[in-house]
Amino acid sequence: MSTGWLDDDTALFVRYGDAFVPRRTEQFDIVCDLLGELPRPSIVELGCGDGRLTERLLGRLHHTRVAAVDASAGMLALARTRLAGFTGRVTLRRAAMEEDTALADGPHGAVVTSLAVHHLDDRAKQALYRRVRGVLAPGGVFVMADLVAPVGPAPLALAAARWDAEVHAADPAAAVPFESARWNTFRYPDPVDRPSPVGAHLNRLARAGFRDVDVCWLYAGHAVFHARRPERLEETT
Ligand SMILES: C[S@@+](CC[C@H](N)C(=O)[O-])C[C@H]1O[C@@H](n2cnc3c(N)ncnc32)[C@H](O)[C@@H]1O
Question: Does the CB atom of residue 145 touch ligand 1 within 6 A?
């Protein structure tokens, strides 16, 4: 299963993720805040990595089960260790998010994801949003934290500069590998990163049949989106 995400990326991200991701804890808290009252106590997390967000979800939503999905065996091994204390409430599954098994065992109360969808191309993003809507229970929500593409030179320069500054402020030692790995994709475009503009995400989510589609947080080219599967009654009105 090849996604373009490499073991070297895992090593760097696991070590420095808290600094590489702008305001990471705040982003995770916003993802949890946006889940609200779920119609079912079941969440799928796509691209869970080493399970940082999963841990937050399980810690905050005490009666909820999480299926944590990732394509990387290395990441899932780290997640297994991190989440050992939540046995019975978490399932780890190796799958690419493009595969149907990633979203199995629905309907779910929520699907969440952080920093994974920008690895998909435009078609795959649209297809994913339709599939996510299809596996959510009525009233269920999709919450996505991800890189977004700034539109135009000034927004691009701002996002690049603010991202660098955030990494420096979080951990000056992390700024060295951040620069040498050319991690700031707004400064060093990488074909593995395919962030879409905010407007494109909003349009695609609406086209996939979601309601209450919004961007709820945005900083340094990182954003958190919310979208809700309508209740059956709303669909007919
Ligand atoms: C930057 S890490 C983010 C990890 C975690 N969500 C976080 O926020 O800490 C990206 C993760 O997405 C996973 N990934 C990338 N493409 C994927 C795909 N097509 N399907 C499933 N996982 C994918 C990688 O294996 C990696 O664990």
Answer: no
User: What is the tens place of the pLDDT at every residue in 186-206?
Assistant: 999 999 999 999 999 999 999
128-153: burial string, b at 16+ Cβ within 10 Å, e else: bbebbbebbbebbbbbbbbbbbbeee
> How remote is the CA of residue 96 from the centroid of ligand 1, in Å?
9
53 within some domain? yes
Domain that holds residue 201: 7-148+193-236
Give me the number of domains the chain comprises: 1
| Residue 187 maps to a domain | no
Cβ count within 10 A of residue 237: 6
Mean pLDDT of 211-231: 97
